[in-house]
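#struct-help
A.M.: can someone run this one for me? Single chain, 343 residues.
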Amino acid sequence: MKKIWQIIAHIVIWTSIILFFLFVVHNNTKMSTQSMLVIIVLFGAINISLFYLNYLFFIPQFLNKKRYGAYIFIVIVTMVIYGVGKYGIGLLFKQDVLTHMAGPNETKRVVIGFWSYFTSTLFNSGIFICLSVLLKFSVDWFLNERIQRDLENQRLTAELAFLKSQINPHFLFNSLNSIYSLAYQHSENTPGAILKLSEIMRYMLYECNDNKVDLSKELQYLQNYIDLQKIRFGNNAYIDFKVDGEITDQQIVPLLLIAFIENAFKHGIANDSLSPITLFVNVNQQHLQFYIRNKKHRNNRDPLGGIGLNNVKRRLDLLYPGKYNLDIRDETDTYTCELSLVL
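D.P.: on it. Structure tokens below:
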């Protein structure tokens, strides 16, 4: 179907050009209708055939394969053959093609010689050859650009899918560790923690399949995670979570902020009322400011290193290029992350 539309477009363009010269140019010249038909329609079709001979055969077979010498040779030979052939056809329409009016008052008809006509024919043929080369390389360039964009989009889509696939196991691993601690202690909060985890997993499984989700749902997801951690600490987890601004229809990439909070609980001190985890979100219609700060627990470092922050950094690079600023300050006693994001 696409090729059919391309053929139709070419036919329309060439027909329009021929009609333009046939009617517009004809009205401004003293040439007869027969001469115009022969010169513009017949010889125009011959030149167009040369255009497509070069466009469809010579360029793909020789120029695209870097057979430059063979390409130049075959083009020159073809132009010579076309020149001789045009002169032969001109002899059939000698009055229209091979003569022109001359003299002071253009009353004398002069016959055009072979070499004079042949030279002008080579020039005309060269124009159509150059036009076909220009069109071919322009089309190929745009096509290659589109292919490269498609390949890059496919690569980014695959990478994002892989990054997102890491989030659920990473989150589940940490959460199950928390619930395991409760179960090991025979805590009465274990059923509530499991229920809270099921709510979180429902959101992750069924509401995070789109590229973006409502910011309100994402913030509720963060609140659920914080509630789960509070259950884990027997309600002795101290976190100061505030949201400022009007939340309406803003959207955000799902599961983007959770890694910062996970790290705060995993590597920070959450049960110190004097040094609570501080989490602040400021929102307007087009901008989000996310801030989290926690006191570091020096004996609670993961020797294997987490994938959470590396994951979120890469997702920010892919999904918010040039639209975010991430400032991470790893100080002696505190760890601070500040994210500024254009929604």
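A.M.: thanks! Residues 187-342 form a domain with the Heat Shock Protein 90 fold (CATH 3.30.565.10).
D.P.: also worth noting: The beta strands are 99-102, 108-111, 213-214, 239-244, 251-252, 277-283, 287-295, 324-330, 334-342.
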